[in-house]
Queue: 4 jobs
Job 1
Amino acid sequence: MKTIFVIIYIFISLNIYSQTGKKNIYYECLLNHIENKVSNEIIQRDKIITDTVYIQQSDFVSEIPDRMNGMNVKIVDNEIIYKKTSNKKAITVIKINPIVFIEEGALINIVTFGISRKRKHYININNGFTRYLIDYDCNNSKYTYKVKSSH
């Protein structure tokens, strides 16, 4: 019964938070992913590879600040990805997958991958992922985020 209540509450709060402009659980997972995974991958041997993180456009996170964790953040759609990958250039994009419900609770998977293309053929390389297990603490009226797995 508790699991059903938590699932219903997560669905309701996802809609409330996204409609009122407050941070939603997708945003919180994305922020954590950028702070803990992407920042470490982009900064290698004290040399910054890039100062911009690209987020694939989705309905889950519609508004993102221009900067997160000291890095520029831009939402990109397929047209922008096409333009950015011209002349055999590659970019790193973060994709937020829809919420999935498992026995332990709600799960959000955030994937970082590289995209390049040769003519109209895209090449995607999975650079890593983080799966967040989300639970709702009814006593404190807060979501808790726990990394279930990461690569």
Job 2
Amino acid sequence: MKQVCVVLVAVLLAGCAAVHRPRALSPAQQAVVAQNRLPRLVLGITRTEKPAYINTASDELINTLVRTGLFEEINYTSLLDKDPDLVLDVHTERQAVHCLTGPGLLGILGLGFIPIPLPDEDHSHSFSFRRPEGSDGVRTDLDQHSTRVVGWLVEPINILPNWSRRFDENRQADRLKYEIISRQEDILRLIGKEDKE
């Protein structure tokens, strides 16, 4: 019986979903991205040992960095085939969400027909670029939260601007690309290729 209830809740809540997309880059931000002068670098990600209830989202960060198209290769340092040009230390710490009692109960009572907003999904990232042999780094932060609404009747929400059935990873990558290029002078200084003018 317990397994049946779990399946019922999952079906009711997963019927349809509407997710608020990250903001698209403004024309001014697009102009900053167009001025990219970063060379194609190899990035090594440091693994961080954290308690089980802390999520550093390193795998998600790697996927988003790959989507930016800025770097030649990105992986955990121990998995790279060559020495990295820069090392990336991840500072992101997300508290794991273990139970959604309220939304789950509403899903059962409403039989999935009542649109239910879930707690904000955290897609933020915080990390620092540094030389492989150094300790001083260039910190980059992306503050990104997304709202998800589930239920059988949420499909019309997806017609609205900036809403879609799933989280927009491409816009997320665009925003991260902008944050990195905004710090490119500091990053170029790390690798000794700063503008001499």
Job 3
Amino acid sequence: MKKIIFEYELLSDKEIREHIRNAEGKHVQQVAFSTYMDCITQIDFTDRKIRSGIKWSGSTSRKESND
């Protein structure tokens, strides 16, 4: 299975919503809103980017956890 690498962009909600509008009908994308974090996240499969207002660092892959 081939891995797909995504780039992470930390943006404001306004900037993310602009990317969502620009990608509408042109890109394969998934959008989610977190009520807990009170922010929106866009996963753009065409650009291979995750755009979110959630600060994130490092990897949370199962392989790298201490479980």
Job 4
Amino acid sequence: MKRHERALAAAVMLGLCLASAAAQPPPTPVPPAGSQTSPPAESPGPATAHFLLAHDSKDGGARIITGVMKPFDVYLVAERLGTQHQMAAVAFRLDVPEGLIVVGEELLVESLLGLGNSHDGLNLAFRCVDNPRVRVLRFRMAATRVLPAASIRLLPDTRTGFLGVIACKDENYDKIACPQESLAVTVHP
């Protein structure tokens, strides 16, 4: 498959995934009166996933403590819970408080298509991965001033209102919403 055909296929897949959020579920058929029905088959439960804003620290804490103009890295990690681990896309918006700046971004997966940017909202389709935890992006950040209690947050994309991951073909490209995530940052002089 040629490169432009892969990009077109990824765009169609991402569009279908995002459009499915607005689609209504099909009506449940009602059995005729007096008919026998068997109980529904057991399902493994709803698919679950979440994002992590991770960082490399010596203390392994849930807070970044740094100094003014000292760069640090924050990783966007997508994680699938349960028995299904496939992922093919993410959608999010990175909310960075005043006093912190993103000085660089590094994509850590094989991207097929990206729509938007991390500040306003990013829908990123990538080659399907079958891992329960995937580092998707690395953000290099720095503080421009002292911040005693700041927070970097992951929020829904502004265009689609979706925050989550998209499964791969084995799960029919299901959308799996994720809760909002944040990472505390303290900046000393």
